[in-house]
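Internal QA ticket QA-208
Title: Verify multi-chain structure generation after dependency bump
Assignee: T.L.

Test input:
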Amino acid sequence: MAAGDMNYPAVHATWETRGYWEGAGRGELVIQRCRDCWTVQHKPRAVCARCLSSDIEHVVASGRGTVHTFTVTHQNQAPPFREHTPYVLAYVELEEGPRVLTNVVGVDPAEVHIGMAVAADYASQDRDDGEAFAVLVFRPA
Amino acid sequence: MSLSGSVAIAGVHEHPTRWAPDKTEFQIMAESARGALADAGLTIEDVDGLFAASMTMGAMGTVELAEYLDLKPDYVDGTNIGGSSFVAHVNHAAAAIHAGLCQVALILYGSTAASNAMAIGTGMGGGGRGWADAFSAPYGVTTVGSYALVARLHMDRYGTKPEELAEIAVAMRTHAGLNPVAKMRQPITVEDVLASRVISDPLHLLDCCIISDGGGAVVVTSAERAADLAKPPVLLLGCGEALAHQETGSPDLMRIAARQSGERAFAMAGVTRDDIDLCTIYDSFTITVLTTLENLGFCEVGEGGAFVGDGRIRLGGALPVNPDGGGLSSNHPGMRGIFLVVEATRQLRGECGDRQVDGARLACVHGTGGTLGMSHSGATLILGAA
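Actual output:
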């Protein structure tokens, strides 16, 4: 079974990361931009890490990117991952600049390579708390 | 007076245990304290600075430890930045002693990681709710995996070969064969490393450190006081520490914390890389040693694979690394930084027997803590024989 088919652990949102997780639930990759210094940042914060401004806007990234680096994980004792090895852990570099930690799914791990073009997909979560969050993964473009 | 050369390591102890189901963390720390204070020719009564961290000590951990040892120190530091913490504690102790805030600093570590079956490398990635953890926990990140991300990029960008990483593991095992208390002493070959099972591609089982129980202690005091104590003092000539992380999304994974801490330490010491007789480097994984040597400036970034070849980092080579066998073969009780200081000190005193680096006068110590490709710490010391 590929990682994209797994029931990912329930993600936990705080007030400052909620925009990202709700975006993922809608099928959007939400990143942040500072309206004072125009720094684009990921992971989401309540302030701009560059200039400490609170004037942050959420923008929807294209979801297109390339594999910056990756590893095929063959051993992880922690559930649920232990049932899903081998799976691909990767940094994907977004067109907008930031890199996101993710899984590359829907492809034989042996086919994954640095520089590979990938596109965002979203693994929805089966939750009992009413939240419509999803986990960002990538598939070959 | 400058900090460089004004503070010394006066006593060290590496607990000989590698498997201690009958001991507690604090017991291992206390037994190590006894060893290091005896080594220095001091007693627990002399200690007025307490420095400690462990896998399980929480917010009040140093207070609890002080009670266990019935200490009422004038200075306390529970900095925990991962396995490099104890190297950073030497920096902090030196600053405190130099400033007159304490006179005799005791740095402690103890762990029963192996007998408690802690899956440090491959089982602690899930479920984090911290600000950063929430963005890695969904993806099955392991400690090994975070280092493997760096190894894969290094191979892709610079053509670094699995055989070159494997040589690091082979060198450490060769050294462990000369260390009577090392856990893994059976010789291995590059082929053995490459044939061992893949844990997180491109890192194999034998690219990964072992897990053991153990602990250690270091006593730091002024160079002036150390000169009158039991063992020849080992002088702190330079120190630095640094943090590296995912920044706002685009860190250079080939530039690790060692770059910043190393530049500072070498500048303070006023010595060059060519002056260094040996290194003790945190070898959580083979890639850790390779990228640390590059970032400390012993070779250019990208040249590490060739640099570690031809026996250069083995005993008898131009730059022996971890003569004790390191975490890859001697011991790795979860956080290994204290042993980097212990081994470098013993080497500079010339008391290492079969694994002694001939004529060792200057050592470079570097600890890495955390998860290399995600967020980590680095602490560097330049130590010199008095």
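Spot checks passed. Chain B touches chain A at residues 119, 122-127, 129, 131-132, 134-142, 144-145, 148-153, 156, 197-203, 246-250, 253, 373-374 (CB under 8 Å).
Status: verified.
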